[in-house]
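Go through this pair.

…
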Amino acid sequence: MLRAALLFLAMAWLGAAASAQPGEGTLRVGSKRFTESYILAELLAQTAAPHTASPPVVRQGLGNTAIVYEALRSGAIDLYAEYTGTIALEILKGSPADTREAMNAALAPMGLGVAIPLGFNDGYALAVRAADAERLGLRTLSDLAKHPELKLGLSNEFLGRADGWKGLAARYGFTQVPTGLDHGLAYEAVAAKQIDAIDIYTTDAKIEHLGLRVLEDDKKYFPRYDAVVLYRLDLPARLPKAWAALQALEGRIDEHAMIAMNARAELQSVPFDAIARDFLAGTGKGAKTPETRRGFTAKLFGPDLWQLARQHLVLVAVSVGVAILIGVPLAILVFPHVRLRALVLGFASLLQTVPSLALLAVLISMLGAIGALPALIALTLYSLLPIMRNTVAGLAEVPNGLRLAGTALGMTPPQSLRLVLLPLALPTLLAGVRTATAIAIGTATIAAFIGAGGFGERIVTGLALNDRELLLAGALPAAALALLSEGIFELIELAMRRRRGTPPSSLPLA
């Protein structure tokens, strides 16, 4: 039975990893974690779809520039929509690259290229409430710098970017210490007057909707951010028909069309694929077809619920299962050696301190893959500590008299471990597995940042759209799964207590 379980877990782990890798003839499109990037990914995929042997794979919401760029560089995706200013300053680290030709020359050694300018500029800017702008006479960023009492809430990526806050503060002499916020949540915070100024993309739909005033970059700090396609140089030769079809998007999307598409997603909750389909059909450019806003129930019990539940369950079950296979034998092995045990448990503790997104970015770079494989490895590493620590604690709690009794009965060390130590340590060991499962259920939501699916997909999309209902539609099923796992472990522990309540079987005689 044990061997069959081990074989099943190993096969499931490998199967999940293999399923994350699409075929060589499949177009893989990525996106960042904001509304416009989601829509552009769908536009690219749907444009190419009639010219590919299999449907394109769209990896939505892959986090910030660092993660999606690493996915492209490693070959996990083939292309994504990027912006010239980001390429020049964030990816090329300020290399002189003010034209597409110069960018392509700098990117070529990395196997990457820039093509297909989509037709619009989506720049960075700072915005304030219009009423505050009128009251304080705020028209430019220089005006904003004269009011250090105003609170700034800036996206975490903007705070760390080469073309972001640090350089902007130096250029204008800002003295404020900004608060880091998710881009989608910043709009709600400024509307609620919790902060006074935020960074925005100039094609954001909520600028006009919330009555914000975009401040002029009077010292010309920000470059142009013309939307282009950043792609792997082998793509045109690998999928020539799809690449030819994508060329038709050049210059087709202007600022007004992009703002209108963003508005449909953020203000009307229209799905990204539907927005892209309408635009390509010629009904998306300024057209407003009657649409019914989806309610919370429709979002919670949407058609993706069971698919996301299956993905989430696989991520948790396989990662915890593999952690058991690694952690329990390793803990048993190091238990008798105090220094080695401290070293191994210390290393496992260190793994717990590594931020999830940082670990995922490193794994993407090492493996050259996104999706289930790096997510499973990360979740397995995070599950090791509670399993190993509780295994060691359970073994340490076994009374010395029982250990000696087994030896007196002529048991070999393996027999003593199997018949005495592990059965007595099992309740504590099981508590570690219970903790690891709870951690994995919560941490698995982060896997959506690298296209591994699960309930995190709804949470990530809800953050991008600032859609609290969609956030809840992802968080509630994850919470329900955590409660279900707690119930299952409670039943297992109840069964174990009842079993321990029965008269123990006689120890085998030597």
Residues 468-501 form the longest helix (34 residues). The first strand starts at residue 28 and ends at 30. The CA atoms of residues 88 and 94 lie 6 Å apart. The beta strands are 28-30, 57-59, 79-83, 112-115, 124-129, 152-155, 179-181, 197-201, 212-214, 227-232.
